[in-house]
Design goal:
Layout (H helix, E strand, L loop, with lengths): L6 E10 H15 L3 E6 L6 H15 L3 E7 L4 H5 L1 H7 L3 E5 L20 E4 L3 E5 L19 E6 L1 H22 L19 E8 L7 H12 L3 E6 L6 H12 L3 E7 L5 H8 L2 H6 L3 E5 L7 E5 L3 E5 L5 H6 L2 E7 L1 H18 E4 L1 H6 L2 H21 L8
Parallel strand pairs: 2-3, 3-4, 9-10, 10-11
Antiparallel strand pairs: 1-7, 1-8, 2-5, 5-6, 6-7, 8-14, 9-12, 11-15, 12-13, 13-14
Length: 389
C-alpha cells in the first residue's frame, strides 16, 4: 500500500474486547444528533445486544435516522424476532442475503456480510471484529472473547461513512427491486482530529476481491524486525503462506497467535496441519487459552497495524464482505503490540517444535484430514483454484 492510500489527520483509539467497545459504542449512539449506520454479522439476543438495541431505539425516537444492516445467516434469529421490534421503534432494518430456507444449498449462501462497522453523524466511526453479542456468553468462560476494535475520528470516518452508505443503497435496491431514492444524508466530516495515517480496506466480490490480502502481503514484504498476527481462523492460501515463510526465513521474528479453545473444530484442526511448516521456518506459535480468541489483527515493525473483521481463511478472503482499517502510526502500533505481547506471555501456551514432534500420529492424521476436508469443500464450492496450496 502506497503512502497515497492513507488518509492523514485521524485520531484512533484502540478498544480491547467488548468491555471497552460496547460502552464506547453506546456513548456515541446516545450522543448522535442526525444519523447512525451500524453493520454487524451477529446481532444476538442477550443483555449486551439488548442494551445496544435500546440505545438505537432511543436514538430513532428522538429523530435520528438509524440504519441497521445485519447478515441473514449470522443474525437470522434476530432478524425474525427482536429485530422486528427494533424496526417498529423507528430503526430502519435491512437484512443482507436473508436465509429463506436451510435446505437449499447454493454457493451464494456462503457470501455473507462479515463486516463490523458503525458511523455516527459521519464523524465517529468504529471498525473491528466484535459482533453485537455478550463477550462472556461463550461456554461460561471467566474471560471475555479476545478481540479488538478501533474508534476513529477524522477524515477516515468520512470514508467509512461513504462505504457503509454505498452498501446500504445496494442492499435496499436489491430488496425493493428498483433503485430507491438516496436516503437522507449527513455530510461526513473531513476535519483533522489527530496525526494518524489510516486507510479503510474492504473485501467484496467485485472490485476489491484481494485488497485485504494484498495489504498484508505488501506489509510482509517490507517487514524488517517483527511480525505479530493474531487470527481466530487462520488457513492462508499459497501466496500468503509463502510470503509468511519467506519473511521468517530472512530473519524477521514472526509470532502467530491462534485459538487454544476450538470454536469450530474443523478449522481449528485444519490450522494445526500447518504448524510443522511454520515451526520449521522459525515461526513462533501461541495458543490463547482463557477464552475464545476472535481477534483479526496484526502489527509489523511497531509501525504498521491492522484491525478488522477479516480472518486469514477462505471464508474471509474469498467469499465474505469484510472491512479492516490499516494504520501507520508507531504510537497505535505499539499499543496494539503491547496488548498482544502481554496476552502471549500471560494467557497463551507456546507450541514448540518439540511439542509438535510429540503429537501422536493419530492427531496429525486428524489435522491432515481436516485440512483435506476444507480443501475439498473449497473445490466443491468452485473456489479451490483461487486458494490453492
Amino acid at each position: 500500500m502506497s503512502a497515497d492510500f492513507f488518509l492523514p489527520d485521524n485520531r484512533v483509539r484502540l478498544l480491547v474486547a467488548g468491555v471497552e467497545f460496547f460502552p464506547a459504542l453506546i456513548v456515541a449512539i446516545e450522543a448522535a444528533a442526525h444519523e447512525i449506520h451500524l453493520e454487524t454479522y451477529i446481532f444476538a439476543d442477550d443483555a449486551v445486544a439488548r442494551a445496544i438495541a435500546a440505545a438505537l431505539a432511543r436514538a430513532a425516537q428522538r429523530g435520528v435516522d438509524v440504519r441497521l444492516l445485519v447478515d441473514g445467516f449470522g443474525s437470522r434469529t434476530f432478524a425474525a424476532g427482536s429485530g422486528q421490534e427494533l424496526a417498529a421503534s423507528g430503526v430502519e432494518l435491512l437484512v443482507y442475503r436473508p436465509e429463506l430456507t436451510r435446505w437449499r444449498l447454493r454457493r451464494h449462501r456462503l457470501r455473507r456480510l462479515h463486516r463490523k462497522l458503525a458511523v455516527i453523524d459521519g464523524r465517529t466511526a468504529f471498525v473491528g471484529g466484535i459482533n453485537i453479542i455478550d463477550d462472556f456468553d461463550a461456554g461460561q468462560r471467566p474471560a471475555p472473547r479476545f478481540d479488538y476494535a478501533v474508534q476513529i475520528e477524522g477524515p477516515l470516518a468520512g470514508e467509512i461513512h461513504s462505504a457503509m452508505r454505498h452498501l446500504w443503497r445496494l442492499v435496499r435496491w436489491a430488496r425493493l427491486g428498483r433503485r430507491p431514492p438516496p436516503p437522507a444524508w449527513t455530510p461526513p466530516s473531513r476535519k483533522p482530529c489527530g496525526n494518524t495515517l489510516a486507510a479503510l480496506v474492504i473485501r467484496d466480490n467485485l472490485g476489491h476481491r484481494r485488497d485485504i490480502e494484498n495489504a498484508y502481503l505488501d506489509a510482509l514484504v517490507t517487514a524488517r524486525e517483527e511480525v505479530i498476527i493474531a487470527n481466530a481462523f487462520f488457513l492462508p492460501g499459497r501466496r500468503f503462506r509463502e510470503a509468511l515463510l519467506a519473511t521468517a526465513r530472512r530473519g524477521v521474528r514472526v509470532s502467530l497467535v491462534f485459538q487454544g479453545l476450538a470454536e469450530y473444530k474443523l478449522m481449528y484442526y485444519a490450522t494445526q496441519a500447518l504448524y510443522a511448516d511454520f515451526l520449521a521456518a522459525g515461526i513462533t506459535i501461541h495458543e490463547y487459552r482463557p477464552a475464545f480468541l476472535h481477534a483479526k489483527v496484526a502489527v509489523i515493525d511497531s509501525l504498521w497495524a491492522t484491525v478488522g473483521s477479516s480472518n486469514i481463511d477462505p471464508f474471509s478472503l474469498l467469499l465474505a464482505r469484510e472491512a479492516n482499517v490499516v494504520l501507520r502510526d508507531p504510537t497505535f502500533a505499539e499499543a496494539l503490540r503491547g496488548s498482544l505481547v502481554d496476552a502471549m506471555a500471560r494467557d497463551c501456551t507456546t507450541i514448540s517444535p518439540a511439542t509438535q514432534a510429540r503429537r501422536s500420529w493419530l492427531l496429525r492424521l486428524r489435522n491432515r484430514a481436516a485440512y483435506a476436508l476444507v480443501r475439498l469443500a473449497l473445490g466443491l464450492s468452485g473456489h479451490g483454484a483461487r486458494y490453492t496450496g
